[in-house]
Amino acid sequence: MTRFVSKFMSDESGATAIEYGLIAALIAVVIISAVTALGSTIKTKFNDVVTGMGGTAGA
Predict the structure, then answer these.
(1) Which of 2, 18, 33, 35 has the fewest CB atoms below 10 angstroms from its CB?
(2) Tens-digit pLDDT string for the chain (59 aa)
């Protein structure tokens, strides 16, 4: 039984999986934030172009 407990305590594979999961979640948050910000900027630019051409944006 003590051998099982010591083997369980020295096993770090679960910690590594959690670290990789946290890194993947952080990358996903950064990508979502960048796409959201970039999407708003692009929408504004397209609306400016449409308005400059004499049209109505969003129609």
Answers:
(1) 2
(2) 788 777 767 776 677 888 899 999 999 999 999 999 899 889 989 889 988 898 766 55
Q: 51: which residues sit within 8 A by CB, 6+ positions away?
A: 57
Residues 6 or more apart from 58 whose CB is under 8 A from it?
Answer: 47
Based on its alpha-carbon atoms, the radius of gyration of the chain, rounded to whole angstroms, reads: 25
Judge if pTM exceeds 0.70: no
Which single residue is written with the structure tokens 């400016």?
A: 48
Give the separation between CA 37 and CA 35, rounded to whole angstroms.
6
